[in-house]
Amino acid sequence: MLFSVLSGITDAITSVIGNHGLYAVFLLMLIDAVLPAASEVVMVYAGAIASGAIAGQSVSLFGHTFAPGLSAYLAMAIAGTVGYLIGAMLGWEIGRRGGRPYLERHGRWLHLDAEKLDRAEAWFLRWDDWAVFLGRITPVVRSFVSIPAGIFEAPFRRYTVLTLIGSALWCFAFAGAGWAAGANWESFHHAFRYADYAVAALIVVGVVWLGWRFKRKRAAAGES
Length: 224
Hints:
By secondary structure, the chain is mainly α. It is built from eight helices and two strands.
């Protein structure tokens, strides 16, 4: 059932990208900055389209069609990077304006609750500025960095620069993989999915451990 659901999500995402190209990549990556939108699939498929391997699909912007190859690859990777950066900036602003009390009351719409915010706070306390950069290149976690960064008032300039670097690495790497895989992009994605699961499991264990450690410190501080 899990594979069936994932396959359906993949089909929906590739269909949207196939119909709307760069615009879909930009929008999906913008969403992924605050809610998981399968950014791996988005960028791998974008790279495959850029290679010219997907019949009937091309890379166009405002009426200009990029020739398959390097220019199309750069256009797709930049669209993903810029979309993600704008989404991350909006997420930071949501967190800053809403604050933790608001998110604890209404965060379910963004898949954020008190427990997840506790874990995010532990993540930021543990890694400081590196929390942003590491979060941007970590599957699953990368979609839950933006709003907590605003809540915990991560310095906006450093946050923006680190997000730009991390999202660029992510987008160019996955688009490059799709470009190299070409028509075999789906086989590549299926193979990579298992690595995604393994990394995600490790991250969950790590975040839970950090949250437990943070709560212990708070309890110790309260007793003293």
